[in-house]
């Protein structure tokens, strides 16, 4: 059986001298791991369309227990992400989040594909600060994978009129100033602009998602909050995140 789909290569692994096993986030078939045979050879017809971060059209043979790429055609290679170590580290972190948060059997991956393609485009064109892009991606992918936080009203007393809120990763939402004394876990006092940024990154329409900015001090706060929430939801560290942070500090 053959399947036809477009998709983004989010992971690659060498399995022999010439063959790779690539992980593809497809539009209609979820996450697929497929063999790309002979593609380490520059002359191979699938060479340029089966590289990490390539967005390609695929014709894939589906066997009883494995997938093999028959044909592939590069639609967009995001080549400039591979020429900049910071961009590449952030792109690989985004891919890693998808691998960790989206189940392979999940079939409705069109929105996730759209999210990462847009994020990679914004990253490659430098249309937005890396840190802001990272925070938006983190909140959006968490929201799409079952961890949408409550950012509307106090998760304890349900008050939405209160002006002062804290973000509490452990409750997956915000707690008002009146209730916060009862919460001993990590908490972040929210400036108005940071609460707005969080709400925007989670609830805004897709095509408006990246359309806002924050002052650098507030961006630091947002960044600390989204990363803390992400690590709380994942319950583990990611090497790609550690690597990205190492690069950004040096
Ligand atoms: Zn409250």
Which helices and strands appear, and what pairs or packs with what?
Layout: E1 2-14, E2 20-26, E3 31-36, E4 55-62, E5 67-76, H1 85-101, H2 110-124, H3 130-144, E6 165-168, E7 173-176, E8 188-189, H4 192-203, H5 216-234, H6 239-249
Helix pairs in contact: 1-2, 1-3, 1-6, 2-3, 3-5, 4-5
The structure holds zinc ion (ZN).
Features:
36% helix; OB fold (Dihydrolipoamide Acetyltransferase, E2P); binds zinc ion; 8 strands; alpha+beta; de novo design (two linked rop proteins); 250 residues; 2 domains
Compact description:
This protein is an alpha+beta fold and 250 residues long.
Question: Please, could you describe this protein's structure?
Answer:
- There is one protein chain.
- The chain has 250 residues and is an alpha+beta fold.
- It has six helices and eight strands; from the N terminus they run E-E-E-E-E-H-H-H-E-E-E-H-H-H.
- The chain has helices at 85-101, 110-124, 130-144, 192-203, 216-234, 239-249; strands at residues 2-14, 20-26, 31-36, 55-62, 67-76, 165-168, 173-176, 188-189.
- The strands form two sheets. It has a five-stranded mixed barrel. Strands 7-6-8 form a three-stranded antiparallel sheet, with helices on one face.
- A hairpin with a 4-residue loop joins strand 4 (55-62) and strand 5.
- Helix 3 (130-144) runs parallel beside helix 5 and helix 4 packs across helix 5 (216-234).
- The longest helix is centred in the last third of the chain and has 19 residues, at 216-234.
- Bound molecules: zinc ion.
């Amino acid at each position: 059986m053959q399947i036809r789909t477009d998709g983004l290569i989010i992971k690659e692994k060498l399995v022999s001298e010439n063959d790779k096993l690539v992980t593809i986030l497809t539009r209609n078939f979820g996450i697929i791991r497929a063999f790309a045979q002979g593609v380490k050879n520059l002359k191979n017809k699938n060479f340029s369309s089966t590289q990490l971060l390539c967005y390609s059209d695929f014709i894939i043979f589906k066997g009883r227990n494995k997938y093999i790429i028959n044909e592939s055609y590069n639609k967009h290679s995001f080549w400039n992400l591979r020429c900049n170590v910071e961009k590449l580290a952030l792109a690989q972190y985004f891919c890693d989040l998808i691998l960790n948060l989206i189940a392979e059997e999940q079939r409705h991956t069109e929105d996730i594909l759209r999210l990462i393609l847009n994020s990679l485009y914004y990253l490659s064109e430098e249309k937005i600060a890396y840190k802001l892009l990272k925070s938006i991606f983190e909140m959006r992918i968490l929201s799409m994978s079952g961890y949408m936080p409550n950012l509307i009203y106090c998760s304890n007393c349900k008050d939405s009129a209160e002006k002062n809120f804290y973000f509490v990763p452990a409750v997956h939402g915000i707690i008002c100033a009146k209730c916060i004394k009862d919460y001993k876990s990590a908490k972040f006092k929210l400036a108005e602009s940071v609460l707005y940024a969080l709400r925007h990154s989670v609830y805004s329409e897709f095509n408006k998602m990246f359309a806002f900015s924050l002052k650098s001090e507030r961006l630091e706060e947002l960044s600390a909050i989204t990363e803390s929430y992400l690590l709380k939801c994942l319950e583990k560290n990611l090497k790609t995140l550690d690597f990205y942070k190492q690069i950004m500090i040096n």
